Amino acid sequence: MSRKTTHVTPHKDGWQVKSGGSDRAYRVTKTKAEAEAIGRSFSQGRESEFIIHGRDGKIQRADSHGGDPFPPRDKK
């Protein structure tokens, strides 16, 4: 089973939110902050990994909203 991912990446018109493996953007925004807010909500609804890329395409941050392949083991 492959994990579901949601990505925020650069787009010619600003920033885009995409599902991993998709060719089309879910949403395109002017600002990265707006794309992150939309992407986080979308990722939480899909229970997917949320990956934020920089202008150069490299991963800057990642959050898990379910489906974490290495969940925390501590039970505090």
UniProtKB/TrEMBL annotation:
InterPro entries: DUF2188. Pfam families: DUF2188 (PF09954). It comes from the Bacteria. Residues 1-23, 53-76 are annotated as: Disordered. This is DUF2188 domain-containing protein.
